[in-house]
Amino acid sequence: MRRRDNTGRWFDELYDPDTLRRIQSTMAVLITTGVPTLYRSDLSAIGKPHRRHHCLVMPLARDGRTVDMAISIPDYG
Description:
Blueprint: H1 11-14, H2 17-33, E1 37-43, E2 48-60, E3 69-76
Antiparallel strand pairs: 1-2, 2-3
């Protein structure tokens, strides 16, 4: 959808500052609460403002308590 390979790249290399702030805010809530979070945006940053992006982000914890990983399931509509 985004026509790029994100492998090995940092978020600040991939996203504009506004999008990066929204992602960081979503991740901060996920880490502090441990509650799955639904991230929503449009794809105007890549010239597709009519397309929606939803991403379910779920916390994972090696020790069963402290969130240290996340898995996400994106949906482009």
